[in-house]
Amino acid sequence: MRFHCFLYLRILFFFILNVHNFNSKVNTFIKNIKKNFVI
Question: Does a structural domain hold residue 23?
Answer without folding.
Answer: yes
